[in-house]
User: Which sequence fits this backbone?
């Protein structure tokens, strides 16, 4: 299974002046924890890290440390996550038929989740890892007046990994780009072009590390897993 890791963000909401994936958690760069889970996932056979070229020397050090037993490549990212994934898709080898996409910033995803996601593509052409929403969600208007409370039974919080058949996803990304669509995940492009997206049960701990509070939580969770 081919796996693309978008890792080319800036981490503005983290308030850091460099890529948040370089920030240390328990003495290692955040991305190292994402790679730890990937290294322990038997289904993965090719890895592409999509990064800003300025960060490539750091990612090369990490790749050398992990010594993956399959090809690994560094791919230049774009201005948005959508552009970064587009670049990643162009860099896949010609024989790639299925691909998983996983945010570098979701450093708590487990090997079990990656493995279940890889298997999911045996039965569908597109999926998103997601968990049922726990909160009551309010829809508001432009002046923050609540206009609706949607039925929670139909609300799921999207995570990554997300996975797709490569040609279908490439076509969706190309059409989305041509039409100027802006989306925050890849499943949204599949949906826009009426392709089915299956839910795969995600993990409650599979946080996207976005703010300093997430970083502190991640540290606690990783301590529990690796330093009992
Ligand atoms: N141009 C971009 C923007 C984001 N990402 C990646 O997409 C994932 C999800 O993005 P997010 O967590 O929002 O990261 P940032 O864009 O870094 O955060 P912010 O929006 O706070 O700047 C991250 O692994 C990030 O590195 C990317 O590859 N290329
Ligand atoms: C893909 C994603 O992780 C799903 O939750 C998320 O949409 C990406 O993060 P962003 O902050 O929307 O760029």
Assistant:
């Amino acid at each position: 299974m081919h796996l693309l890791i978008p890792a080319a963000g800036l981490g503005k909401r983290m308030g850091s002046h460099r890529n948040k994936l370089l920030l240390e958690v328990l003495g290692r760069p955040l991305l190292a924890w994402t790679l730890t889970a990937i290294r322990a996932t038997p289904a993965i056979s090719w890895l592409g890290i999509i990064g800003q070229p300025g960060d490539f020397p750091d990612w090369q050090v990490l790749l050398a440390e992990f010594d993956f037993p399959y090809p690994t490549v560094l791919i230049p990212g774009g201005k948005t996550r959508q552009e970064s994934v587009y670049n990643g898709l162009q860099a896949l080898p010609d024989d790639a038929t299925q691909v998983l996409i996983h945010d570098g910033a979701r450093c708590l995803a487990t090997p079990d989740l990656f493995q279940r996601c890889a298997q999911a593509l045996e039965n569908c052409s597109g999926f998103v890892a997601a968990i049922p929403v726990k909160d009551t969600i309010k829809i508001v208007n432009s002046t923050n007046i609540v206009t609706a409370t949607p039925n929670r039974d139909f609300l799921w919080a999207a995570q990554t990994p997300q996975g797709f058949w490569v040609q279908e996803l490439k076509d969706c990304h190309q059409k989305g780009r041509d039409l100027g669509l802006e989306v925050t995940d890849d499943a949204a492009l599949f949906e826009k072009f009426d392709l089915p997206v299956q839910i795969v049960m995600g993990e409650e701990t599979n946080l996207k590390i976005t703010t300093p509070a997430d970083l502190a939580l991640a540290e606690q969770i990783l301590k529990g897993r690796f330093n009992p």
Summary: Residues 212-226 form the longest helix (15 residues). The pocket of LQXTBERG (ligand 2) is lined by residues 81, 103, 158-160, 184-185, 208 (CB under 6 Å). The domain at 2-226 is CATH 3.90.550.10 (Spore Coat Polysaccharide Biosynthesis Protein SpsA; Chain A). The helical segments are 30-39, 56-66, 81-90, 111-120, 166-179, 186-192, 212-226.
